[in-house]
Amino acid sequence: MEDTDQQADLPLVPATRADIKALETELLGGERKLRRREVAAGAGVSLLSARKIWRAMGFPNLGDDDVAFTERDQEALTTVVDLVRTNVVTEEAAISITRSIGQMTDRMVVWQIEALVEDLVAEHGVSDAAARRAVVSELPQLIDSLEKVLIYSYRRQLNAGVQRLAVRAQAGLEASAEGRDGAEDDAPLPLARAVGFADLVSYTSLSRRMNEKTLARLVTRFETICSEIISVGGGRLVKTVGDEVLFNCETPVAGAEISLALAEAMAADEFLPQARVSMVWGRVLSRLGDIYGPTVNLAARLTSLAQPGTVLIDAATAASLAEDERFVLIPQEVQEVRGFGAIHPVLLARGTGRGLVVD
Question: CB-side exposure of 89: number of CA atoms within 13 Å?
């Protein structure tokens, strides 16, 4: 604790040009010495093929005369190209996989830098601008640790994804077949999932009245609570869009437990507004790290029908939970829903048991 206090008392040092250059050299693996045609030729591919991969990675377009690349860029390009050359994956798959890496790491580094800036502001009492000037000086001591944790997390997440999306996929389809005749809109889709949304009530009007720090605190607290509950419940947080989270999990019971826990957590939090929550058990298409299909659309529609602090599900999902004493199911009035016609919403409430415990 004493070390932390001493660190907080140290003055922030704005990064110099030499600091910025040194950090870039470390991150890029050397100085920029190569042009794009040289990198493509070194990897043994056409410039057109190289540009496809760089675009997928999220890099800006560069001219022939721009000295922008290092030997590490050439190594990375060769690595991707070799996957296609050796017939491990097709070019289309290689581009898609590369795009996933580019998009996910882009969001990740923005998140990390903003977290560091916020921490510097809080610990040193400096302005946001001063913290951003100083963050370059803080990064070198973090790079190796962050990289190790990134590789560790990637391997753990890849293992979990294989289990979820390949090993247990057939069992999920068989479980979801109960009570269905095969004519449903989502029948051809390959994965059975409980899909849920949680939407903060009155977020738009609240955000207009909040200053920057308060809004940042609200968004951070909302996503932190949601991600913890969804993880503990065995689900996956698919994405967060401002005041709303989309999640999925492999069984309707898990979806119900997560949904109730989300509604209860928001209602009990003194800082956050209440949430409207929905959940639908059905089949989905998984692509680009997202999920698609009628099940997702219906869950989104149900969210708008839910009252603050409550969870709505559809009749088919209710049927899958009907024999479980952990849940109370209260039929609601029939509603006309755009794209679905008349649906029978059911209010999901807590029955016996403790529910999810987030320690």
Answer: 13
